[in-house]
Amino acid sequence: MVFTTGNKELDILVGEIPQKYMLLIVGHPGAGKTTLASSICYANTLNGYRCLYISFYEDKDKIFNNMAKLGIDLRNAEARNMLIYVKIPVMKPRGILDVLNELIAKDSYRVVVIDSINPIMELYRKKEQRAILLNFFYNLLNTINGLLVAVAEIPWGRESLNLGSIEFISDAIIYLKHRVIQGLLVRVLEVRKSRGSPLNVVEIPFDIAEGRGIVVYVPRNPEKPAISVEEKLRSRVVVDELVGGIYRGDIVTISAPPNARSPWVFMPLLDITIENDSKILIISYKYSPIEIVSLIRSVLVNNMGLSSEEASWVIDRYIHVESVNPASISIPRLANFELRLVEMFKPGIVVFHACEIPWRVMKSVEDVYWTQLINQLIWLENQGVIVVRLISRVDKHFVKMSESLSDLVIRVRYRISGNELKPIWFVWRRGGEPRIIDFSSRDIAEKIIECSKKFKEIIKMRIKTSLPPSTSLHTLQP
After folding, report:
1. What residues have CB less than 8 Å from 250, skipping those under 6 apart?
2. CB 321 within 8 A of CB 285
3. Fewest Cβ atoms closer than 10 Å to its Cβ: which of 295, 318, 327, 428?
4. CA distance linking residue 52 with residue 238, whole number of Å
5. How many whole angstroms from its chain centre is CA 308?
6. HSE, side-chain direction, 13 A CA sphere, residue 68
7. What is the C-alpha separation between 252 and 168, in angstroms, rounded?
8. Residues near 16 by Cβ (< 8 Å), separated by ≥ 6?
9. What is the secondary structure of 87-120 as a DSSP string?
10. pLDDT tens track for 32-65
11. What is the rounded CA–CA span in Å between residue 238 and residue 341?
12. CA 318 to CA 1: how far, in whole Å?
């Protein structure tokens, strides 16, 4: 018999929850203690374990309504006779324990939630009285032969409750905290104790999301880059001529003046994607998906010679675009949103557009930003995903730091050629010599024209022989 926290990430952190197990949930007011306790109760009712929820504070209708908004359907559990919710008044010490014993003995329960134990602890302050309380919890675990969830509240400014022996007999202790960073509410949980499970992460970000309840963001912290074999991806002329080839797991930084961003940077990406029948995920911090798709369509039609119908086919089959406002969410939540997109869409290339925006928003916590970014890049590299970061050169320090993390660096500049501005690419690849690609030269222009012809041929062939594009993914909520 194994119980659950109702969250697969938290189940991994806490470890297996067997019979006769006590979970202590501790936190400040409003930290999410009741939400987590309700989620645990509800999830176990879905697994066939009856739950008794005892509260000293909350009316049933109030908590049922609040939890329903989070996707925790306590009314449904009650209707299935899998949940009994009881609110009891605070009374004399002996009276509380008698009432609790009577409730638990009245029926068969595998999960019991006490929300919260603070009133009981207040009534049993003396040392000799605490022995009675410990004995009660031991007997309770033996009676239900299941999971006991005890909720405890700590005052603002304190990090511990000084529960003494209660903490000792608990099998796992989860502390819930929240703080304000850059005007955003950031929630973190700390698994301070968990018998039988190694604890490697001190604080784990989480959220309370409408329709989803508790959402835990377990960070991806790879210990080292693990990709072992360099695999050069197939491409037509454009990639080899412009950047010298792209390898699976490459990290690419492309920077341009903030007032002159070149659409040409998308050509190598489209070349790689089409030739390898892969997919591109574009995450923009500035433009909407409609605006990004319009930009891609313009490159396909005006720069690569496709018809409007052919461009639509390429976009529908190979490109998925998301946008997010980095000023509206915390760093861990943003990183988790992006990695969830990668796991769902499984692209060969991920393009992060306008990377200077999240960096500038999070500059006051720059160390946190770079730590999260490095972990994210290594994780993506280990998955064999090509990462392309598009940056406007608004800050030299940021651009140089970004380039130092990259396998391939492209700096886009412009020169006057006749009456036009033509891009010049300064290209550096790890292990190679720097090179200059001048788009005003006849040699480069001829090679791009030849590449566009081949690109158009392969698109026509793919359209004739391909199946309809797969069903598009629903947009995730960050």
Report:
1. 386, 387, 407, 408
2. no
3. 327
4. 66
5. 36
6. 11
7. 51
8. 2, 196, 197
9. E-----HHHHHHHHHHHHHHS--SEEEEE-SHHH
10. 999 999 999 999 999 999 999 999 888 999 999 9
11. 28
12. 46
For 90-126, letters b (16+ CB in 10 Å) and e give eeebeebbeebeebbeeeebbbbbbbbbbbbbebbee
* Helix (H) or strand (E) run with residue 178 in it: strand 172-181
Backbone angles phi, psi at 257, to 5 degrees: -60, 145
| Whole-structure pTM value | 0.76
Number of domains in the chain: 2
Do residues 314 and 274 make contact, with C-beta atoms less than 8 angstroms apart?
A: yes
User: Which CATH number characterizes residue 58's domain?
Assistant: 3.40.50.300
Helix (H, G, I), strand (E, B) or coil at 10: helix
| Residue 470 domain-assigned (yes or no) | no
User: Which residue range forms the structural domain that includes residue 433?
Assistant: 237-465
* CB 112 within 8 Å of CB 120: no
63 and 116 co-located in one domain:
yes
187, 216, 245: which is the final residue of a domain? Answer: 216
> Has residue 150 been placed in a domain?
yes
Structure tokens at 360: 């500038």
Nearest to 56 by CA among 34, 82, 24: 34
Q: Are 300 and 443 in the same domain?
A: yes
Count the neighbouring beta carbons within 10 Å of the beta carbon of residue 175: 23
Q: What distance separates the 2 farthest-apart alpha carbons in the chain?
A: 94
Query: Of 182, 216, 250, which residue is a domain's last?
Result: 216
Residues 298 and 419 occupy one common structural domain: yes
pLDDT at 453 over 60: yes
| 457 — pLDDT class (breaks 50, 70, 90) | confident
Closest CA to 53 of 191, 168, 165, 147: 147
Rg value, the chain, Cα: 29
